[in-house]
Amino acid sequence: MKRVDLILSERELDAVLKAIDAAGAPGYSVIKHVTGKGPHGWVSEAMDFSGLGANAHVIVFCEAEILPKLREGIQPLLDYYGGVAYVADAEPL
Fold this sequence. Notes:
Elements: E1 2-9, H1 13-23, E2 29-34, E3 37-38, E4 41-42, E5 55-62, H2 67-81, E6 84-89
Antiparallel strand pairs: 1-5, 1-6, 2-5, 3-4
Helix pairs in contact: 1-2
């Protein structure tokens, strides 16, 4: 089993979720209004009212066979709009 973590702008969230569904992933979790510090500095929390500029964290658990289709659908969106994605092994408790 694999765990995919994506951090991206909330503005692109719908497109990314459609790509996840199209890849055949069984589901995902979304955490909105994620803040932190990355290579470009801090993510501002000053935009809480509108949500403009806010990030989201999407977590996907899927079988390894899903990864090529997932990568095919998501990587172009990350390349164009920005964001990061990481894959790790996951083992159920």
